[in-house]
User: Fold these one by one.
Assistant:
Number 1:
Amino acid sequence: MNSNIVRNIALALLIGAATQVVAAPAPVTELSKSGQGTSLERLERLLEARNQVQLDMQRQLNQLASEMDQLRGLVERNSYDLSQMLERQRELYREVDTLSQQPQKAAKKDSADKPGSGESYSGDVSENEAYEKAVNLILKKKDYAGAVTAFNAFLTTYPESTYKANAHYWLGQLYFTQNQLAEASKEFKAVTSDEKSNKRSDALLKLGVIAERSKDVELAKKYYQEVISTYPSSTSSRQAEGSLKQLGN
């Protein structure tokens, strides 16, 4: 075999090897680059979606917590209002019990004030009946709305009645129990204008309570001090002293 033949064979072998190298498939890593990029993008999207879900859940939890706080505050406020209403009802019932224990006396037309009581009795039968009917709406029927109507009608019919101060007092109590403070204040002031009324000390005390609930502390102190100075030995005076201490005086 001459050198030309050998050289041609070698050249053919080299050309074949080179062709195989060029035609060889690309490495796996090269082929999977595009697929790997797609997987990473998909994973990132999943992570972002999960994070968004967590944020949404956190916002919902925060909103629920806020609503729970509002509901808790509302429940506490309703509980306080209920306790205040019950206390006002107890005050009315105590007054009703006190009145029910007092004998209802009928007097003659020329009857005078009962000594030491500050109360007098009318000789007008219809006046006595109208007043007794209004009182019984509280004592017997527990019809407080009806009692308000009856007492207002009584005062209109008998504006100068001997029971005038008491009628105003009971209207004040009824309005006070219903938390109608402006109306109650008007009625209690009418009672205090009668210095002979045995309800005057308690009416002054109630005016102090109304002023205190209306956030007028100075006016409340004024009423409490008037009760103490004018009726020093009364139950109302002791209650006024306790209220003044709570107000820091």
Note: Residues 17-33, 101-119 have pLDDT under 50 and may be disordered.
Number 2:
Amino acid sequence: MKVEIWSDVVCPFCYIGKRKFENALKDFAHRDEVEVVWHSFQLTPDFQPIPGESIHESLAKKKGVSVEEGRKMNDYMTEAAKEVGLNYQFEKTIPANTFLAHQLIHLGAHHGRQDATKERLMAAYYLEGQNIGDLDNLVKLGTEVGLDATESRAALTAGTYAEAVRLDEYHAQQIGVRGVPFFVFEDKYAVSGAQPSELFGEVLAKVYDEFKPAKPALTMVADGDTCGPEGCEI
């Protein structure tokens, strides 16, 4: 079963949604048969961070509200994150454009470390106050999940995966994604938002029952012997 997820590294609901989905997947009996693919989505593609500007100020400017209102929004997210074991540190958060970060996630995917890269960047941004828009820091974070520093720097500098990021975003437009996180199960069923783990669990079960592979037919070869693709049974 394939689950595709569009999200942005700096979307607070996306990290919460990631945890809720993971909790559902952990309790899913067929979790080893689930392939999770992360897709890029930038909430603010043209964002240009201002040195020294806090996340509260940046959010207030984006939403057209006061800085105090921006702080209240972030306080709300902090409490929501605690419900899934995440301790958001907005006082440390450094506003960043995520274009390079998404490229690093694609590099991680190339090496079979996509989820680990995604998780490391989200933790760095929300829990540790690290700058995920800085090339040197991204290279460092990549090495922490097993990516080669020289390759990461070269790929990010050359924009090797820039087109892959744009393609993800184009695909999101084509299927009508307006907000993230956005989950697509087997290219048929969609779930929008950081929904409860119970709902994700229900969808996983429903989709698995509908799309689960048919059991291979067994062919009789001798009395008491049956053979299938995995071998023979007595």
Note: Residues 50 and 72 are 21 Å apart (CA to CA).
Number 3:
Amino acid sequence: MRTRQALLQAAAVEFDRYGYDGTSLSAVSKAAGLSIGAVTFHFPTKVHLADAVQEEGRSVTVAALERLAAEPMTPLRMVIDLTLELTRLMEQEPAVRSAIRLSRERPSTVSWSDAWLPTVRSLLDRAYESGQLHTDALPADVTTLVEHLTSGAEAYLRSRMGSDPAFESAVAQLKRVWRLALAGVSAEGPSVPRQTGATESPAERS
């Protein structure tokens, strides 16, 4: 079990850095300091290894969400804290970053977001029903917002990791973005931007 865990940790780092196509069993063997025979004993092919790394990332994510679920808080607060926890995991756990990258590069496999997105939607349904959301802030739309925020946090991390060690925490940045989202940014009231190139209807012109 210790050998298998060491291989998973080494593979998570390799997949995170180089992606599925850029990672080989020999590279994982070298990174883990173990023989290629030890690798293939536990993971006969790269497919088996990638599957195991994705499952590890999902397991880490589910365990974190279960710990959060034990905390007494409102549904909307839970959604916010959930996104912050997901971002913390992305920042600190190579297995989670690998699971995200591998689910993009291997679209036929189970997506990492499937581990948490249904929970977010359920919480937002409850938040809407209890009056925590504006009547026009539909749960489906807020779920899309959460997806964008999470994807943006990952993009921010990937653009800065390995560069300046003093870059701002993605969690701290996401907290600021959530404050903006909750407060709203327009001093003139809500408005919906028209699509670029869209033809304005007579009603809109009036």
Note: DSSP finds ten helices and no strands in the chain.
Number 4:
Amino acid sequence: MIDAAGIKRLLPHRHPMLLIDRVVELVPGDRLVALKAITCNEPWYRHLGEDAGPEQFAYPQTLLVESWGQAAGLLAVCGAEATGGPTAQVMLAGAMSGVEFHRPVHPGDVLEHRVRLFRALTDTVIFEGETLVGGEVALTFSRMVMAFRPGDQLRPPAEADQVAAPAVS
């Protein structure tokens, strides 16, 4: 439904932090299913030696959360496009609750992120969902809050960028 090129048009993330490969189901303003294949060629595994055991290849939980969050961001952006809402804003992950890790994820696994819209406000969206691996739940989210803000509100004022350099004598 949305391939890698389409994802790059919709999300600001790039290698190595673009953690969604494909969207296979999308109902704007309702739900999305996205896939992410885990490989041992990802940068987080480069420090592992030849004697690394299987437990050391467990995918970092922070990246699992980030990947699911990117899928949620895609649902938010596609929902905004469908309703004519703002799309040129920066997405910020806010609060998360009820996050549970049910099993480790390893290279060779394909993450199936299932994201559902719980509630949408003007500039804030609340999601729920889970990540499956081979039909087994690996991660659940009771709620994730994502806020959208204009990029210029997130930058310091121009005068803050121009700090006077000390005089050299």
Note: The chain is about 20% helix and 35% strand.
